[in-house]
Design brief:
The chain has six helices and two strands; from the N terminus they run αααααββα. With about 160 residues, it is mainly α. The chain has a two-stranded antiparallel sheet with strand order 1-2. The longest helix is centred in the middle third of the chain and has 26 residues, at about 65-90.
Length: about 160
C-alpha cells in the first residue's frame, strides 16, 4: 500500500476503520478470554470505535466518502471528549454517573435481588482494572482518539480536492 493513499480522505477512513477494528477485537478478547469486565464508559467508547469501523468499511464501497470523512471527524471529536471524561472519572477529578459506580438497577423484590446478585457485575469507572504496557486502558483510549483526531485534521488539510 502506498503511504500517499493514507493521506487521502478515503485512505484515512479505511486505515482508521482497520485500526479501530483491531482495537475492538482486542477489547472483546480481553473481556471474554481474559475476564476483564468493562465499565459503562468503556462500553460507550466501544460504540464510537464501532462507528469508526463502519465509516471505514463504508469508505470502500460508497461514493459519499467525503461525508463519511466529515462524520468521522465528529466521531473522533466526541471520542476525545468522552475518553477525557472517562479519564477524569478514573483519576477522581470529577464524579461519574450512577452507572459508573456499579449502580445500574435496584431490586424491587427478592427475586430481582437474587438475579442481580447472580449477574456478572459491571466494573466501576473510577477504578482502573486493565493495564496495557503499564498504562490504564483509559489512557490508551485518550491517546488513540487524540492521535487520530490530529491525523484527521492533517488529512483534511492535505486532501482538499
Amino acid at each position: 500500500m502506498n503511504i500517499r493513499f493514507l493521506v487521502t480522505q478515503r485512505g484515512f477512513l479505511g486505515f482508521s476503520g482497520a485500526v479501530a477494528f483491531l482495537c475492538l477485537a482486542f477489547a472483546f478478547y480481553a473481556q471474554y478470554f481474559l475476564n476483564v469486565n468493562p465499565c459503562v464508559l468503556c462500553l460507550y467508547e466501544r460504540y464510537l470505535y464501532g462507528a469508526v469501523v463502519l465509516l471505514g468499511m463504508g469508505s470502500l464501497s460508497i461514493s459519499y466518502y467525503r461525508l463519511a470523512f466529515n462524520i468521522l471527524g465528529g466521531v473522533l471529536a466526541f471520542g476525545c471528549l468522552l475518553s477525557i471524561y472517562h479519564l477524569g472519572v478514573e483519576l477522581h477529578w470529577w464524579q461519574g454517573t450512577a452507572a459508573c459506580h456499579g449502580v445500574t438497577q435496584q431490586a424491587k423484590n427478592i427475586e430481582e435481588l437474587r438475579a442481580l446478585l447472580r449477574a456478572k457485575p459491571m466494573a466501576r469507572c473510577d477504578q482502573a482494572n486493565w493495564f496495557i504496557l503499564g498504562m490504564s486502558a483509559t489512557y490508551l483510549n485518550v491517546i488513540w482518539f487524540m492521535i487520530f483526531s490530529a491525523l484527521w485534521h492533517i488529512v483534511r488539510r492535505q486532501d482538499k480536492c
